[in-house]
Design a protein that fits this description.
This protein is mostly helical and about 110 residues long. The chain is built from three helices and two strands; from the N terminus they run E-E-H-H-H. A two-stranded antiparallel ribbon has the order 1-2. Helix 1 packs across helix 2 and helix 1 (about 15-65) packs antiparallel against helix 3 (about 90-110).
Length: about 110
């Protein structure tokens, strides 16, 4: 049995293990208390994103159809800058994008 001297006390590895285990169990109990709240927040944000993302997709598709000439493929990457510039001036899109970014950043903070 190895001992670690701490001041005037001798603490065995077994005693340290007991203390650490107790602290980990205590932390785990506290963590488990907040899990339902975090899950509820994540679910709420995911539901909002499930509404926002299709709206953004529709605006992107509509914008792409409006700004890309008929003779060029709608998926032509060379037109991305034109589409992105048009989206940047679309207030509905920028508002939805801002909301989505806030929801995504919250998710990243949690993980």
């Amino acid at each position: 049995m190895k001992n670690i001297r701490e001041g005037e006390w001798l603490i065995t590895v077994e005693k340290i293990e007991i203390i650490v285990t107790a602290k980990v169990e205590e932390a785990l109990k506290e963590f488990n208390k907040i899990v339902p709240s975090v899950q509820k927040k994540i679910t709420g944000r995911q539901m909002k994103l499930d509404i926002i993302n299709p709206q953004m997709d529709k605006i992107v598709n509509d914008t792409r159809n409006q700004v890309v000439p008929d003779r060029i493929s709608k998926n032509d990457k060379s037109m991305d800058t034109v589409v992105n510039n048009a989206l940047a001036s679309n207030k509905d899109f920028t508002s939805l994008d801002s909301q989505a970014q806030k929801l995504y950043s919250f998710s990243i903070v949690l993980f």
